[in-house]
Design a protein that fits this description.
The complex is a heterodimer of chains A (about 210) and B (about 100). Chain A is an alpha/beta fold and about 210 residues long. Chain A contains eleven helices and four strands, in the order αααααββααααββαα. Chain A is globular and about 65 Å long. Classes of the chains: A alpha/beta (about 210), B mainly beta (about 100). Chains A and B meet through helix 9 and strand 3 of A and strand 2 and strand 4 of B.
């Protein structure tokens, strides 16, 4: 072992802030057992976490921007979102089915999972904290317009606000409407207008580049 | 296996609280809606989540509800809707169809 003689300067010892929760302990115990029994390897667990962490809303934005510029692709996306994502080289995993729904002048879709936090993680990454909050989950189903207003989105009464409660095997991706005046933009630039929140349905797409 | 319901069919959501991992929210139980889409067959989470095989597979439907039918009163736009995925064994025909 090397001598520990380099200069750290003064700092507090690095320690856990608190003991792991009951569920963390249980998860660790289960993982240890699975590894010990050879069901999964620690490297497989690591790779799965690495893959999950690599998923970001940029994947969904790429899909939406392509749908904006290619109407035939959009039709395929609406018919079978998993296959359409695969066309763009995006693997949406084997677990849940993916459904894309389109926001138009007449219909505004917004997604929630009232029972837990189902979310199209394969193309949006981890859900934001508010998506998992009891506040959002309990209120967006019975006061969608009030909740959207809190997000800064006010919709005309003529627009049908359609709340998707993803209770089961389906994961929903909202295709926000393409903003007016973006006809000249490249697909790569358009993708920057497609935000995470616009793909959940609590916002519209950006109208200008960040 | 053939799906019991078709798009457009009027259905009522059953009421119940089984001691399993059921995926039918309480707020929609007893409400009447219309089948929007037949998603296909999926393993039943009420057995799958408890270490069983989830078989036989169950048909899963996307059901459309009018917000004004779900919440009394719902004072926002009468156009507003709720779309929820519900397994076949939680649905029964609603009459008149």
């Amino acid at each position: 072992m090397q001598e520990h003689d380099h200069n750290h300067g003064a700092h507090a010892p690095i320690m856990n802030k608190q003991d792991p929760s009951k569920y963390e302990k249980r998860a660790w115990a289960i993982q240890s057992l699975l590894v010990e029994k050879g069901v999964v390897s620690a490297d497989e667990v690591r790779r799965a976490i690495e893959d999950m962490d690599s998923r970001t809303p940029a994947l969904g934005a790429k899909v939406v921007a392509h749908a904006w510029v290619d109407s035939a692709f959009k039709a395929r996306l609406l018919a079978d979102a998993k296959s359409a994502c695969a066309e763009l080289g995006i693997d949406t995993g084997a677990l849940a089915a993916l459904v894309a729904v389109e926001n138009t002048e007449a219909v505004h879709n917004v997604v929630v999972c009232t029972l837990c936090s189902c979310y199209p993680r394969a193309i949006l990454g981890l859900p934001p904290d508010w998506y998992k909050s009891l506040n959002y989950r309990s209120r967006v189903v019975n006061d969608p317009r009030g909740v959207l207003k809190e997000f800064g989105l006010e919709l005309e009464p003529e627009v049908e606000v359609r709340v998707y409660d993803s209770t089961a095997d389906m994961r929903y991706l909202v295709i926000p409407a393409r903003p007016a005046g973006t006809e000249e933009m490249s697909e790569e630039a358009l993708a920057q207008l497609v935000t995470r929140d616009s793909m959940i349905g609590v916002a519209k797409a950006r109208t200008d580049l960040p | 296996m053939v799906a019991k319901f078709n798009p457009g069919d009027k259905v009522r959501v059953r009421i119940g609280m089984p001691p399993t991992h059921f995926r039918t929210p309480n707020y929609i139980q007893g409400k009447v809606g219309k089948i929007a889409t037949v998603h296909g067959q999926f393993r039943n989470p009420e057995s799958l989540a408890h270490g069983d095989d989830g078989l036989p597979k169950q048909f899963l439907y996307l059901v459309r509800f009018e917000q004004t039918e779900v919440w009394k009163p719902y004072t926002d736009s009468p156009k507003d809707t709720l779309f929820i995925d519900i397994y076949e064994h939680w649905l029964e025909p609603a009459y008149p169809n």
